[in-house]
Write a structure and sequence with these properties.
Number of helices: 20
Catalytic activity: aldehydo-D-galacturonate = keto-D-tagaturonate; D-glucuronate = D-fructuronate
Radius of gyration: 23 Å
Protein name: Uronate isomerase
Pathway: Carbohydrate metabolism; pentose and glucuronate interconversion
Order of helices and strands: HEHHHHHHHEHEHHHEHHEEHEHEHEHHH
GO molecular function: glucuronate isomerase activity
Helix content: 40-55%
Family: Belongs to the metallo-dependent hydrolases superfamily. Uronate isomerase family.
C-alpha cells in the first residue's frame, strides 16, 4: 500500500507565509459556488449513490478524455460495462495522469470526502472501490451530505428557459440549509444558426403556452421566462458562446431574419450575427432591469469530432480551446449597453490563455465606479482551471486590474465530488501571494494580505451576488 504522502497539510504551500495565509484566512471560508451544472433533482431528492462510479466518473468528460488517450475502449467509459469495470478502467489510468490536474483532484477528492490517504492505481482499486462504496451507503454521504461536508453555503445550478424549476421550488420549501439557486441559460434561443433552433422555439412555445410567430413574440416569451426565474430566486444568467456577436441592425431586419428562419429559409452569416447581436442586447437590457449578473463563457471550440458527436452526443469530451477574435466585439457589445445605462454586473470567462490580457484589460473599460468590481474577469475555467491556468488568470488580473475585488473560484462541474477545487484554488492563491511576501515583493504583513485572501476566497462573491 503506497500512502498518498504528497497531499499533506502543506500541499501547494511552499513557504510559511503561504501556509499562514491559507490556514488563517482561506481554509475555513464557506464556499459560494456560483456556477455549476449539478442536478437540482438529485439535490432535491437527496440522492444516495450506489457506488463511486455514479458520483465520480459518470458525466465527467475530463476523466473520459484521459481514459481514451490511454486506449481504453468506449465500453468502459460511456458504454455498457458495469460501474465497477468503469472504475477499474479509471483507476488503471490514474498513474498516467501525472502533471495533469486530474492526478491532484483525484487524490484530493478521495482524501477530503472519504479519508482515503492512498494512491489510486490498479493495485489499490478494488480496496478503494469497496471502501468508498461502504461510506456512500451512509446518510451523511448523500448528495446533500457531500455538499455539507465541504462547507458549501450557496450553489447555483444552470437551467434552460424551458425548465419548470420544480426541483428548485422543492428545495426552497425544504429545510435544507444550503441555498440552491439557478442561472438562466438561453443559448438555444440565441444560436439561430443551430439546426435545432426551430424545434427549440417550438418547445419554448409549448412551455410558455404562448405562440411565437414573430421576433417580438420571442422577446415577450423570454421576458416572461426571466420573470418566472426571478420569482423563483434566480439572480444571474449564463451564456456559453464562441464569442460575443456585434453587428449594427434594425428591429425590422431582425423581425425579417427570424421570420425567414421560422419559414425554413436560408439565412446568411451576416444575418446570423445581426440576430445574435439583437437578442443578446435585448437579454442584456432585461438582465440589468431585473438586477441580475450576466455571465459569458467564451472561447470553446465544441464538438470537434463529428463521428463521436453522432455516436455519443454533445458534452461527452470532444471540445477544445478556440482561437476566436474577442476584443472588438466584446467592447462594442458592452459599450452599447453601457451607453444606454443598461449594463448589468458582468463576468467574462476566457478559455484561450492567449487572450488573458485582452480580458483583463477589457473589464477596466466598464468599471465605472458605480459598483465595486462591476465587470469581472472570471476565474480560469474548463481547460484553464488547473494550477497554471489559475496562476495565469490571477497574474493577468493583478497586472491590469485589481485582483483584490476578484470574486474567486467556481467548480463549473457536474460532479458532487468536485468541491475540493475551491481548496485547490485557495492553496494556489495563497502560495502566489506568500511567495511574493517572502521575496519582499509584497509587505510581509499577514493581516493586510490576509484580508485580500479572505475577500477573494469568499467575501467578494458574497457581496457581489447578494444571494
Amino acid at each position: 500500500m503506497k500512502s498518498n504522502k504528497f497531499i499533506t497539510e502543506d500541499f501547494l504551500l511552499h513557504n510559511q507565509q503561504a501556509k499562514d495565509l491559507y490556514n488563517n484566512y482561506a481554509k475555513e471560508q464557506p464556499i459560494i459556488d456560483y456556477h455549476n451544472h449539478l442536478s437540482p433533482k438529485e439535490i432535491a431528492e437527496d440522492r444516495q449513490f450506489d457506488n463511486i462510479t455514479q458520483v465520480w466518473i459518470a458525466g465527467d468528460h475530463y476523466k473520459w478524455r484521459a481514459m481514451r488517450t490511454m486506449g481504453v475502449d468506449e465500453k468502459y467509459i460511456t458504454g455498457d460495462a458495469t460501474d465497477k469495470e468503469k472504475f477499474m478502467a479509471w483507476a488503471k489510468t490514474v498513474p498516467h495522469t501525472l502533471r495533469n490536474p486530474l492526478f491532484h483532484w483525484t487524490h484530493l477528492e478521495l482524501q477530503r470526502y472519504f479519508g482515503i490517504d492512498e494512491l489510486l492505481n490498479e493495485a489499490s482499486a478494488e480496496r478503494i472501490y469497496d471502501a468508498v462504496n461502504e461510506k456512500l451507503k451512509q446518510p451523511e454521504y448523500s448528495c446533500r451530505g457531500l455538499l455539507k461536508k465541504m462547507g458549501v453555503e450557496t450553489l447555483c445550478t444552470t437551467e434552460d428557459p424551458v425548465d419548470s424549476l420544480k426541483y428548485h421550488q422543492q428545495l426552497a420549501k425544504s429545510d435544507f440549509e444550503i441555498k440552491v439557486s439557478t442561472a438562466f441559460r438561453p443559448d438555444k434561443a440565441v444560436l439561430i444558426d443551430a439546426p435545432t433552433f426551430n424545434a427549440y422555439i417550438d418547445q419554448l412555445t409549448d412551455v410558455a403556452e404562448t405562440p411565437i410567430e414573430t421576433y417580438k413574440d420571442l422577446q415577450e416569451v423570454l421576458r416572461k421566462r426571466i420573470e418566472f426565474f426571478h420569482e423563483n430566486g434566480c439572480r444571474l444568467c449564463d451564456h456559453g458562446l464562441n464569442s460575443i456577436s456585434f453587428e449594427d441592425y434594425s428591429e425590422e431586419e431582425i423581425a425579417a431574419i427570424f421570420s425567414k428562419k421560422r419559414n425554413g429559409e436560408e439565412i446568411s452569416p451576416l444575418e446570423v450575427e445581426k440576430f445574435k447581436t439583437a437578442i443578446l442586447v435585448f437579454l442584456g437590457e432585461t438582465y440589468q432591469e431585473f438586477g441580475w449578473v450576466q455571465q459569458f463563457h467564451l472561447g470553446a471550440l465544441r464538438n470537434n469530432n463529428k463521428r463521436m458527436l453522432e455516436k455519443l452526443g454533445p458534452d461527452t469530451g470532444w471540445d477544445s480551446i478556440g482561437d476566436y477574435t474577442q476584443a472588438e466585439k466584446i467592447s462594442q457589445f458592452l459599450n452599447h449597453l453601457d451607453g444606454k445605462d443598461k449594463l448589468a454586473k458582468t463576468i467574462l470567462y476566457n478559455l484561450n490563455p492567449a487572450d488573458n490580457a485582452v480580458f483583463a484589460s477589457m473589464i477596466g473599460n466598464f468599471n465605472d465606479g458605480s459598483i465595486k468590481g462591476k465587470v469581472q474577469f472570471g476565474s480560469g475555467w474548463w481547460f484553464l482551471d488547473q494550477k497554471q491556468g489559475i496562476i495565469d488568470q490571477l497574474d493577468a488580473l493583478s497586472n491590469m486590474g485589481l485582483v483584490s475585488v476578484f470574486i474567486g473560484m467556481l467548480t463549473d462541474s457536474r460532479s458532487f465530488l468536485s468541491f475540493p477545487r475551491h481548496e485547490y484554488f485557495r492553496r494556489v492563491l495563497c502560495n502566489l501571494f506568500g511567495e511574493e511576501m517572502a521575496k519582499g515583493e509584497l509587505p510581509d504583513d499577514l493581516e493586510m494580505v490576509g484580508k485580500t485572501i479572505a475577500n477573494i476566497s469568499y467575501n467578494n462573491a458574497k457581496e457581489y451576488f447578494d444571494f
